[in-house]
Amino acid sequence: MKLRELNRNLWDDFDIWQGRFRGYTVELEFPYREIDKHGKGYRVIIKNKKSIVHSSMLIFDELEKAREFSINWIDNLLEARDT
Asked: What is d(CA 7, CA 17) in angstroms, rounded to the nearest whole number?
C-alpha cells in the first residue's frame, strides 16, 4: 500500500497520511502539537465507502509499523468474512 501525505488541516491537530488497500481507505494520523492528551505517535483509522470500520487508539512509534498493522487488520477482516 502506498501512502500519500495530505495537507495539514489547521482545525485538526494531526498530519494525515492516506492510502488504499483492498477497497478500504486507511488514514494514519500523527499529532503535530504537544497538546494531544494521548501522547505522540501514529494512529490508524480504516474506512470503507460508508463509514469508519476501525479506529485504533494504539499508538505506533513509526509510520511503517502503523502501515503494517493496517494491512494485517484488513487481511484478517477479509479472511474472517470468507469463513
From this structure: 9
Kindly write down the DSSP assignment for every residue of the chain, as one continuous string.
Answer: ---EEPPPPTTSSEEEEEEEETTEEEEEEEE-STT-TT-SSBEEEEE-SSSEEEE----BSSHHHHHHHHHHHHHHHHHHHH-
Which residue type is seen at 50? K
Identify whether the C-beta of residue 2 lies closer than 8 Å to the C-beta of residue 19: yes
Instruction: List, for residues 11-28, the tens digit of each pLDDT value.
Output: 777 888 999 999 999 999
**Tell me, what's the pLDDT at 37?**
63
Q: What is the pTM of this model?
A: 0.82
Beta-sheet pairing, 52-55 with 4-5 = unpaired
